[in-house]
């Protein structure tokens, strides 16, 4: 396997196209990664494909189907190492081999321990020229949720918040509607739709009677997918079993997981509601344990929309990978409510530095994206 | 005077050049406005000038000096209506007339009641074709301090703040060094250098032992001026006469004005320190009265660098025209200190909407500029 190969300008263009294709699956592939594939012969694209839905064809399969017999002698550009194992579909490495592809360039090696280099090895053993690492950073960013789950057994957490310019989320009396404008709220819907799950605390559900679904009619008309959108799973941390089936949350027929410390069998829940009992910490759901359990349930990327207490606790424990904060051009003053509640800091040197990865004007508001580590930036 | 004249593409280009020239004076012309002038004949620029220092030649005088006898028959593009009165220099309208200019296009009419259309009238009366309103918005933004003083008898106030992403300026124990990075602090020096004055409260001076001068060595090397920079006047609100001459502030030999409610004659001040007694409000300096007095002293644009109390009071009274907030990618939590202290708001509908005019990455930090009115945005 040649790792230090010099890629050509054309290689870059075809891989960039494969990444564009991969992105088309970002509303639908969970728990699988987003993958795109381009087949090229004589400098021309003869087949393209991306992974659309778990259980359906992988990107390579779709590209090979489009190329047909032309695939013989072609080069495959694929954003993730072709799989080597029988999952819900046969291994793609075998498929590329059988189709007579003569070269395979992968953007990155599959972090899935079931694959992890085996896919490229199958190809190399069959005399196919293989290389990896082309536009690797971009490919990794596209699947940072899947990557984190595979590498650390934890989901990638993006924490969304909305505040005034002086960092306040609500007036002292609790009024918070609306700090940000309609464009920012629409933008949130687009992020929700791309997430595997939306996570919040019982407080948010009880105080706002929030439904936490994707409001399809608020999404932009030109979505980069033609597939029907799925509703992300709604996950609520409810340590004290305060939720009741009458809440608006439960009026939407779509999967809900309640994380609690003890099962309360006195309530009747709809069939799409399940409970997970999580170990306790200080009589509440242990957040680290909860996230590990969610990773085991194959949640890659979780969108956290919580209040200052839960978001603060998760910040304190270093469980948040990325913050997306919408700042509205308003000032609410010191009596208003702070963004994040966590234990007093006493030394500026001990305060973590985040990295700003983006700053954008969304309607009348500003959206700032800040990541805990540089390499998790979008 | 033809106000609804259709300006040509060439007219726009020459006026844009005049505005660029005007900007070169923005570190030095106070209390005068920034003005640029371009003289054009046969489609060629034959003279350029800008106003550099109060008491020295106006933009038109400098452009006419460069053009010499060629000025006869030329068109003048000037970012502000030529003056009609004898100030420290003779009226420019007369100068343009005498030089034989045949057309004068002004970006805006002079808001100075001593001019206010009289300059253009002198020219029109002499048979010179005149027009105004070309790139008017840009010209107005350049001199929004001068404009506000002329039109409202008040200085334009830009309030600078630095905070963490959750809107906190310091830890609970007071530690605030450094929230933002060196690039942001350098950026502040550039704004200070362009201001007529830096305003703060005695608290900030006492707590930080702040000098509040422009640190010339922290400015970018390629400043858009070759003139020696002046130090902005430092203005301190000290209602209770708590300042003492031993403070670092007074070690820099450059004008300082102390605003107080009563003169304290027990202290010996350096010669560059003066006091203004301002009417009281709740036993403190009446902020509105103070700003009016500063406008009378010809301060156009004041850079406010104050703590949460003074900046909060000024926000509450609607005295701030623009906020420049540097957000560092850090999170300090709810116990840390808030950006602005002011009376509790109880209704979200009553909260003023600002307008975001800019959002920029400055080193590792973000600078957000928000204005109180759209038409004061930079």
UniProtKB/TrEMBL annotation, chains A, B:
EC number annotated for this UniProt entry: 3.5.4.26, 1.1.1.193
UniProt name for this protein: Riboflavin biosynthesis protein RibD
Superkingdom as given in the UniProt entry: Bacteria
Cofactor(s) the protein requires to work: Zn(2+)
Keyword Phosphoprotein: no
Residues that, per the record, bind NADP(+): 162, 178, 204, 208, 239
Involved pathway(s): Cofactor biosynthesis; riboflavin biosynthesis; 5-amino-6-(D-ribitylamino)uracil from GTP: step 3/4; Cofactor biosynthesis; riboflavin biosynthesis; 5-amino-6-(D-ribitylamino)uracil from GTP: step 2/4
UniProt similarity note: In the N-terminal section; belongs to the cytidine and deoxycytidylate deaminase family. In the C-terminal section; belongs to the HTP reductase family.
Catalyses which reaction(s): 2,5-diamino-6-hydroxy-4-(5-phosphoribosylamino)-pyrimidine + H2O + H(+) = 5-amino-6-(5-phospho-D-ribosylamino)uracil + NH4(+); 5-amino-6-(5-phospho-D-ribitylamino)uracil + NADP(+) = 5-amino-6-(5-phospho-D-ribosylamino)uracil + NADPH + H(+)
Pfam families tied to this protein: dCMP_cyt_deam_1, RibD_C
GO biological process: riboflavin biosynthetic process
GO molecular function: 5-amino-6-(5-phosphoribosylamino)uracil reductase activity; diaminohydroxyphosphoribosylaminopyrimidine deaminase activity; NADP binding; zinc ion binding
NCBIfam families assigned: eubact_ribD, ribD_Cterm
Keywords linked to the UniProt accession: Hydrolase, Metal-binding, Multifunctional enzyme, NADP, Oxidoreductase, Riboflavin biosynthesis, Zinc
Positions that bind substrate: 176, 192, 212, 215, 305
Binding site for Zn(2+): 58, 83, 92
InterPro entries per record: APOBEC/CMP_deaminase_Zn-bd, CMP_dCMP_dom, Cytidine_deaminase-like, DHFR-like_dom_sf, Eubact_RibD, RibD_C, RibDG_C, Riboflavin_Biosynth_HTPR
Main function: Converts 2,5-diamino-6-(ribosylamino)-4(3h)-pyrimidinone 5'-phosphate into 5-amino-6-(ribosylamino)-2,4(1h,3h)-pyrimidinedione 5'-phosphate.
Cofactor note: Binds 1 zinc ion.
